[in-house]
Amino acid sequence: MSDSPLSSESPDLCLASGSPRRQALLTRMGVRFVTVAQDVDEQVLADESPEVFVIRLALEKARAGLSGRPTPDTPVLGADTAVVIDDEILGKPQDADAARAMLERLAGRTHRVLTGVALVDGEQEATRLSLSSVSLRMIDPAEIEAYWASGEPADKAGAYAIQGLGGVFVEQLEGSYSGVMGLPLFETHDLLGEFGIAYQRHWATEAR
Ligand SMILES: Cc1cn([C@H]2C[C@H](O)[C@@H](COP(=O)(O)OP(=O)(O)OP(=O)(O)O)O2)c(=O)[nH]c1=O
User: Fold this and answer.
1) Which of 11, 35, 66, 154 keeps 20 to 30 A from 77, CA to CA?
2) Whole-prediction pTM
């Protein structure tokens, strides 16, 4: 378990995620949180739709974080992001060849990005789904090589990051920028509201 920059007082929730993007987005909301470890198998099940897959994984990550929370009543947030093209789920690339293949496939086309978010507290469980459409421009092979060499694609679903260098490939986005980045702010706010987590009370005392 590690502390967020805002967690000198008791946290609003635990974030069951090792993703620095999710930590940054939750920090941006002004939520006070601690991170807890989770190690969930990210295999897609037979005949599982992308919608069901991201919600299932978000829930499994959140549930896996329950044992690491600082107090028995701290809620745990989990999320999962998938890039979907031709009804196929693209996860994080295993190596340069996989990243190259993903980017060649995504370039010049429109794909979907789904992020599932789940909040659990040991009794109550709730989920939200964020759906976006992203169109990437054509990307030439030299650009793909240079992009892989930057190190950015390695830990990103679909082998690109809209918030990073990969932003230069994004011609159009319909949906949620934060959802594509890994934690949709609108849906996360909504979930926190359902659990009565009044995190916005911190806004007045935060340096911005
Ligand atoms: C499409 C896209 C994905 N991503 C990232 C978000 C997620 O971190 C990652 C998808 O992998 P996930 O399996 O959703 O998450 P993770 O393994 O990084 O983190 P954790 O399970 O510990 O919460 O891809 C971007 O950062 N930018 C993008 O534009």
Assistant:
1) 154
2) 0.94
